[in-house]
Amino acid sequence: MTDSTFLTSLSHVFGWTYFTCWSLSFYPQSILNFSRKSTSGTTIDFPLINSLGFFAYTISNIAFAYSPLIRAQYAVRYKGLTPTVQLNDITFAFHGLILCFVTVSQYLFPRAWGFAPSLGSRPSRFILGTFFGCVAGALIIIFRVWASPVRNDTSGAAVTEGGWVWLDAIYAVSYVKLVVTLIKYTPQVIVNYRNRSTEGWSILQILLDFGGGILSIAQQAIDSYQQGDWSGITGNPVKFALGNVSMIYDLVFIMQHYVLYRHAAGAKADGAEGDSDLDPLLREDVRGGGDEERRIQ
């Protein structure tokens, strides 16, 4: 087996393994919610903004993989190279989108799942602002490209010298996923910190996410090495950033679960469960929330 064949095979193995890890990471939280008949300890912020991120990621991956126009404009901008998007990327993105919708439904329709009502079903203003800001930003770029007379150009000058082409619109959509990844875990980190506990938050999803991040970066590095040009990374910054940023957050959650709050599970103070369900970024007084949740229940 030649080195090239070995690296190609290794790339495929890493790709489908990270796909498996990341895909499986969507299940533990929804299963944990179902087994507890409650979403307490978490908020809708994470699955809600994650749904937007994976919608954008699915659209951009499909465009990079199957649109002749986008691929042609990409090749012009990046010296004849092709996007490093593979089938496992598209399958992962679409699967993640569906599972995000399932988890969001547990917060929006708790009675349909047999859950007790929870204040955590109300998204924070921070997440709502990010949600609508990302949508507005992507639409502005899309309309700007639509108005550009060179939007369908693949000759070279328009693509490489600042002309607004459809490739830029797809990048705008893909950056929505990047923005979401940068902030989506923040509310839950704060909830865990204020509750001094990770109860209700599945650590298994974090461990799977961490393993998938390592393999995702490894696959992209192999693909870029084989092409002989690191534009495979710079030309697809979202995939590269996904692995790195997610792993940083994962390490924070691992530290919270196994080090900082390892003795907190099952030993939370009275009323603490309700605290996690209040707006984690706006609340000043984190005490007393448990009484309000118990009245709702």
UniProtKB/TrEMBL annotation:
Domain of life (superkingdom): Eukaryota
GO cellular component, one term: vacuolar membrane
Family matches, as Pfam families: PQ-loop (PF04193)
Region ranges (Disordered): 270-297
Compositionally biased intervals (Basic and acidic residues): 280-297
Cross-referenced InterPro entries: LC_transporter (IPR005282), PQ-loop_rpt (IPR006603)
Reaction catalyzed: L-cystine(out) + H(+)(out) = L-cystine(in) + H(+)(in)
Main location: membrane
An example Gene Ontology biological process: L-cystine transport
Keywords: Lysosome, Membrane, Repeat, Symport, Transmembrane, Transmembrane helix, Transport
Keyword Transmembrane helix: yes
Transmembrane segments: 6-27, 48-70, 90-114, 126-146, 166-186
Membrane topology: Multi-pass membrane protein
Subcellular location as annotated: Lysosome membrane
GO MF annotation list: L-cystine transmembrane transporter activity; symporter activity
Record bears the keyword Repeat: yes
Family: Belongs to the cystinosin family.
Name of the protein in its database record: Cystinosin
